[in-house]
Amino acid sequence: MRILHGISRKRQPPAAASGGGKLALLSETDIFRDLTPRDMEEIERVTAMTTCRRGKVFYTPGETGEVLFVLKQGRVNLFRINPDGKKLVLTSVDAGTVFGEMSLIGQGMHDTFAEAAEECTLCVMSRSDVEHLLVNKPQVALRFLELLANRLSEVETRLETVAFKSVPARLAAEILRLTKGTPDERVDGVSHQDLADAVGSYRETVTRILNEFRRDGLIELDRLSISIKDAEGLKALAES
């Protein structure tokens, strides 16, 4: 399995996997929750850990070979580009989730790019490793099916939103999604361009709407930072 687009890759000995290492990550990942500690140690031995800086596109439709990523830290955007060069984010992958190109389990990127929305740490599994795991641990296969069903539902919802809702409604929904569960309903490190890509619009349009939200007392803006001031108002707008 080759290194993807310059991502640094390092294998760690089992002793180094304690704490925040590979073993801890894999043990916290939902698809592996039915496995024993011994099973997890075996998986840890065959995975590689990679790091990727924010903004790096580390997977493209031109990649050959099959690989599965387990996101340890950070956030990844999966997006496509239309013939005019416009970017549309299909889904955002959070820590603890798997994604990648793996036809064996129906997990495909399908002309999709993967970009680190934040600085990321990932574990990588090859096709042979995943195939061995599924043959010997059918409960993991069931978890994969659950994951794929949820992922498909999320993508369908996002595409429906882009097709049928106004840009202000889509932007309000995206802000609510990003700030959900964060301290003080605040999200940092998200640019106007990031938001534009997520809602299928242009940066200038998003900037104008964000200023309108601030004027109406819905949010507070700072450099690469958004804080919600009127969550109910944003919810009403997102549902309109």
What brief labels describe this structure?
four-stranded antiparallel sheet, 8 helices, five-stranded antiparallel sheet
Please outline what is shown here.
The chain has helices at 22-28, 37-46, 127-136, 138-164, 167-179, 192-199, 203-215, 231-238; strands at 8-10, 48-52, 57-59, 67-73, 75-81, 87-94, 98-101, 113-116, 120-126, 186-188, 219-222, 225-228. The chain is of the alpha+beta class. Helix 6 crosses helix 7.
How is this fold's topology laid out?
Layout: E1 8-10, H1 22-28, H2 37-46, E2 48-52, E3 57-59, E4 67-73, E5 75-81, E6 87-94, E7 98-101, E8 113-116, E9 120-126, H3 127-136, H4 138-164, H5 167-179, E10 186-188, H6 192-199, H7 203-215, E11 219-222, E12 225-228, H8 231-238
Give structural notes.
The protein has helices spanning 22-28, 37-46, 127-136, 138-164, 167-179, 192-199, 203-215, 231-238, and strands spanning 8-10, 48-52, 57-59, 67-73, 75-81, 87-94, 98-101, 113-116, 120-126, 186-188, 219-222, 225-228. The protein is an alpha+beta fold and 240 residues long. The strands form three sheets. The chain has a five-stranded antiparallel sheet with strand order 1-2-9-4-7. A four-stranded antiparallel sheet has the order 3-8-5-6. The model is unreliable at 1-19 (pLDDT under 50).
